[in-house]
Amino acid sequence: MDRYQLKNVIIIILLLVNLFLMGMVGVRVRSEQEARRRTAEELGALFSADGMTLEEGAISWDAPPASLSLSRDTALEEQAAAQLLGSAASAADQGGGLYQYASESGEALFGSNGSFEASGTLAGPEDAEDYCRQFCRAFGFSGPEESPDGGWQGVRLYEGLPVYNCVVTFALEDGAVTSVRGALLPSAGTPADPQPVLLSAAGALNAFQQMRRESVAVASSVAETRLCYELVSSGASMSLVPAWQIVTDTTNYYVNCSTGSVTSG
Predict the structure, then answer these.
(1) Which pLDDT score is estimated for 205?
(2) 110: nearest Cα among 77, 154, 83
(3) pTM for this structure?
(4) Mean pLDDT of 156-173
(5) What DSSP assignment string belongs to 142-199?
(6) Which residue among 27, 77, 184, 258 has the highest number of C-beta atoms inside a 10 angstrom radius?
(7) Interacting residues of 165 by C-beta distance below 8 A, sequence separation 6+
């Protein structure tokens, strides 16, 4: 067999291998689609039996991100204190992991679990909205948006996902910002070791439905499931655990991907 014929044989073999691999991928895709269809039908029937509607497309097939461990960042706290109180803020160690910052504008306290609270005359009525917006932009919060009590609030975003229970709130009096509360999260976390087995959106919907049966939560339809994070604090340790936001016609529910616990919010 000459070189030209050998080259043709090799090309044909490679084409056959590629066709085989493409066929295997197609079979896998079809199997996954069929499994998803069955899951959606079974969940839909389960919800329907309990008088609820699981709307088409409500089940997300995205994979939850890894759980993350966070460490306190005192440099970040100094930056936040300067943003809240002005660059002339002085610091004092209060013990027990508590740091206090003070300036002519007011004072701020930062705890070891990332929580903070500032009070004083922090921004006048003419600067209030810009003050809130600049803080949110500097420390990874959305918004801010108007809160039900007439102030402002923003939700922490981490790697593009909201941390549903990490919210900064700005209280106003006569249009002036008089207090700020929230939690600071360092910009970099490390994957938790070991990684827990994480619930899929279908698993989260099962957990939600079980909670609804036990607590008689009022909801008649589920429109969507979305990934988010839950901030878990214990003493000085902080972690971000992926969670599923379940959007219903009454309120949103959150299912911890690690423990399966359900929270309304």
Answers:
(1) 94
(2) 77
(3) 0.82
(4) 94
(5) ---EE-TTSSEEEEEEETTEEEEEEEEEEEEETTEEEEEEEE---S--EE-SSPPP--
(6) 184
(7) 230, 231, 254, 263, 265
